[in-house]
Amino acid sequence: MTDLRAAILARCDELEQLARAASPSPWSLGETPFDSGHVYDADGYTVVSHEGDNSEANAALLVEFGPAAVLELVAGAREMCELHTLNWQNYCEGCGAVLVGDDPSLRAAARMIGVTIPA
């Protein structure tokens, strides 16, 4: 069976690296009709400039799920992994599940950060 905990931690590393390399947080939306659909970083530089269909909704989504939000998701997923560790008998010391991959909390953490869950 695939080690779901290891896959989650690897994805956390990828996401954290992306978030830390991005423009500084917090991000904000443009406030005038001229810059509607624009996203600015903490220093006031343009992160995204988009016009057209759904530009305001796209910009709002990017602001909500910018680097700070990604880092919070990563921290939560890592915390869930710390709570679920196998002992030498393949029992999770946190919840008593036989296999960590079957643990519902780890499956939820995997889905939250885009890890494919084995069937």
Strand order across the biggest sheet? 1-2-3
| Fraction of helical residues | 40-55%
What is the structural class? mainly alpha
Amino- and carboxy-terminal Cα gap:
10 Å
Per DSSP, the total helix count is 4
Beta strand %: 5-15%
**Would you tell me the overall average pLDDT?**
86
Number of domains: 1
Task: Summarize the biggest pleated sheet.
Answer: 3 strands, antiparallel
Shape: elongated
User: Care to count the β-strands?
Assistant: 3
Radius of gyration, CA atoms, in whole angstroms? 18 Å
The stretches of 5 or more residues where confidence is low (pLDDT under 50) are: none
Order of SSEs:
HEEEHHH
In short:
The protein is mostly helical and 119 residues long.
Secondary-structure blueprint of this entry?
Elements: H1 4-21, E1 28-29, E2 38-40, E3 46-49, H2 55-64, H3 67-83, H4 104-112
Antiparallel strand pairs: 1-2, 2-3
Helix pairs in contact: 1-3, 1-4, 3-4
